[in-house]
Amino acid sequence: MGSVAMDLKARIPSGPLEQKWDRHKFELKLVNPTNKRKYTVIVVGSGLAGASAAASLGELGYQVKCYCFQDSPRRAHSIAAQGGINAAKNYQNDGDSVFRLFYDTIKGGDFRAREANVYRLAQISVDIIDQCVAQGVPFAREYGGVLANRSFGGAQVSRTFYARGQTGQQLLLGAYSALERQIAAGTVAMFPRTEMLDLVVVDGRATGIVVRDLVTGAIATHCADAVVLATGGYGNVFYLSTNAKGSNVTATYRAYKRGAAFGNPCYTQIHPTCIPVSGDYQSKLTLMSESLRNDGRVWVPKSARDRRVPGAIPESERDYYLERKYPSFGNLCPRDIASRAAKEVCDEGRGVGETGLGVYLDFADAIKRSGEATIRERYGNLFDMYQRITGENPYQLPMRIFPAVHYTMGGLWVDYNLMSTIPGLFVLGEANFSDHGANRLGASALMQGLADGYFVIPYTLGNYLAGLKPGINSPDAPEARAAERETVARIERLLSGRGTGTVDSFHRELGRIMWDDCGMARSADGLKKALGLIPELRDRFWHEVKVPGAGEGLNQSLEKAGRVADFLEFGELMCQDALHREESCGGHFRVEHQTPDGEAKRDDDRYCYVAAWEYRGEGAPARLHREPLAFENVKLTTRSYK
Amino acid sequence: MRIALRVWRQRDREDAGRFVSYQADDVNPDMSFLEMIDVVNERLIGQGEEPIAFDHDCREGICGSCSMVINGRPHGPHQGTTTCQLHLRSFADGDTIIVEPFRARGFPVVRDLVVDRSAFDRIVEAGGYVSVSTGNAPDANAIPIAKPVAERAMDAAQCIGCGACVAACPNASAMLFTAAKVSHLGLLPQGQPERDRRVLAMVRRMDLEGFGGCTNFGECTAACPKEIGQWTIARMNGDFLAASIRDLEEMNLRDEPG
């Protein structure tokens, strides 16, 4: 490990941008239909990417084994996505096109993603909507029966398809139903309440995974001809995030430790519209869909420490700061920009609510313009959700919102075929680093998860398998046995702790370090401080943590402990990446690198590359590899939403 | 505020189970119900005891993981709310709250408040889908769907599969869950080709999983966090009857000689 140069070939097909994917699909090798059933594929995760991949691969005839830690594949965290899914259908006749969606996504990502990947994503977007409608996804419609669209942050066209405020739920239930159909057909075997704890690599190829049955506690090795990870993002490294409580980095981090390069770990997205933190007991943060910014106006008082109730503050003393600073995009400017602007006004002492960490999102004008009934129809469930959590009625009082960690653009490095640096290990959806660059635009995560699962992996996986003899991998391989032994030893070590600290208390502490020093604003000093604190905390964790119960049977403390142990290592990698990237781009904001008016300052001469980190053993610093990004179809510009 | 808890503890499926009392002192009215359990669990772990096992994940009312019966009501006292969306401000200082798992033959207890709801997956597996493999779809706007129909389908499709309907029903019936899926797909043009087959197969599976029959109590809708209506059950009954008759006719046709 580490001695051989890492293969960072992106394998981007040649030819004009618009023809790359079609040409590539033709050039990819195929597996004969009657041979497909001889190959077994492991899919870890059952969210949009995992469920759509497992279902589509099952339909093609592969033998698929699909795993999720939840009690049902339908509960994967994609279910919680609210706002919508982008597609370049141009049904609104408002100037959208595949090229415009591609351009918006590349620009939104602050020119830190691959042109070819993003273009393919925009191309595929139209097929996704067709597929989902055919499955019976009840998207919003106009009276004439055609599909409705809305606009979303970072775009000036209406290209977002939605199902009330529950788009992720409906898309996931569509993918889940396709998955259940394949389970019934016998092509997919589903393993719920089963968590992947390690990757098995034999002769440099991914051949299986080590899993724990969360009900019985049994550890087992499952083998296949290829492994697909669709295990989501690592936002919970911050403890508080909009992610589900179970979301974790373990699968991708374990793959990293087995030789898969980790791409751009520091690129995290802080979402501007979340419900503010109310106390120390807080266990998670709740997102209020960005779609609310279509009708809500963001403001704070003009003067600092203005403690009046919002209704008592006259128009002339309000600062609608997004509209003021970014007149052409206004409240719809991209997430990273809206989040930083909120932090800025709060830093100036103009934040609202008890903690002063909040800004208003006000619907009074929209209600006056369109009527309460219209607003209720558009956002009713979100308003209800807000009222339930805060006890305040947003039809009467402006909402209070604050940024929160929401999505991670970084992930395992993959080539154009979505294969990692370990042959046979493919990575889809939020778990990979590929399409969003340094910032993701709203309604693009659902698009990418489904693009990867429905329309990319079914083609590219075959190309890998075509050159491979099926069914040769065995759980009895010495490497598989070793991985299983290491997993068992790790669990025993976690359970043998004599301390009194709970797993959550360590997780909270890690979250505070990450939020303070690797959050919305990062500095070399802060990151260096964090790089000192994290190993210390990790050391304390292993000495002082108390994990009650046994390895057998359901043990939720043990599940959490394993995940937090990995976060405690991964946080360091994030800080290291953030420290090395001496520029500001997208969600990565280094205070040393900003324009006089506080905007992110990119350094294209030195940092126009993907940072791919290679694991080099316990205690050794990770090694940086660079994949240069070439832009042949768009001009690198300073991102301006003014 | 101070809350007294009586929580169902059960080691595994075979264990008889019992209520155990816990005291949650110094809790805050803005805390969610699950955050209160977190606080109790943190204390238990600190004392070297095993925490209360419970299912939860998104904590924003959409994943359908949480599965507690609070003071006799699945998901607690409010309409249209999951346990994770319930806050302590809904209780009074000094209250005693009784917490149990969802109880039904179709949902065996795994541990404490965690139950096995895989029967729901098997009901969907029986036919809760449109058989359209990836890549087969026509343009999304090729088939117009009237807005009220799409909205009605969405009303049913909102089901989060939590199982509160089963837990609330005196018969432990899974009719509302099954009817929600049958209605969602049965309302849409995409769901028509398999409409008969779907309802017959899903109802058959539902019966096989040990859920009871529906006798129109309506408790399911009252407990449903997404407030899915009784109309779905009426609709499914109609579909089931029509499909059964057509099924019979088909069989008669097949039985005819020559």
User: Can you tell me the residue ranges of chain A where pLDDT is under 50 for at least 5 consecutive residues?
Assistant: none
Lateral arrangement of strands in the main beta sheet of chain A: 5-2-1-9-17
Largest sheet of chain B: 5 strands, mixed
Can you tell me the CATH class of the domain at 271-406 in chain A?
Answer: Alpha Beta
The helix fraction of chain A, in percent, is 25-40%
What is the CATH architecture descriptor of the domain at 271-406 in chain A?
Alpha-Beta Complex
Number of helices of chain A: 17
Count of DSSP strands of chain A: 19
Radius of gyration of chain A: 24 Å
- Biggest interface and which pair forms it? A-B, 80 and 79 residues
General description of the model:
With 642 residues, chain A is of the alpha+beta class. Among the domains of chain A are: 136 residues, Succinate dehydrogenase/fumarate reductase flavoprotein, catalytic domain (Flavocytochrome C3, Chain A, domain 1, Alpha-Beta Complex); 130 residues, Methane Monooxygenase Hydroxylase, Chain G, domain 1, CATH 1.20.58. Chain A is 36% helix and 14% strand. Chain A contains 17 helices and 19 strands. Chain A has a five-stranded parallel β-sheet. In chain A, a hairpin with an 8-residue loop joins strand 18 and strand 19. In chain A, helix 5 crosses helix 12 and helix 10 packs antiparallel against helix 11. Chain A is globular, with a radius of gyration of 24 Å. By secondary structure, chain B is an alpha+beta fold. Chain B folds into two domains: 109 residues, Beta-grasp domain (Ubiquitin-like (UB roll)), CATH 3.10.20.30; 138 residues, Alpha-helical ferredoxin (Fumarate Reductase Iron-sulfur Protein, Chain B, domain 2), CATH 1.10.1060. In chain B, the strands form two sheets. Chain B has a five-stranded mixed β-sheet with strand order 2-1-5-3-4. Chain B has a two-stranded antiparallel ribbon with strand order 6-7. In chain B, helix 2 runs antiparallel to helix 6, helix 5 runs antiparallel to helix 6 and helix 5 packs across helix 8. The mean pLDDT of chain B is 96.
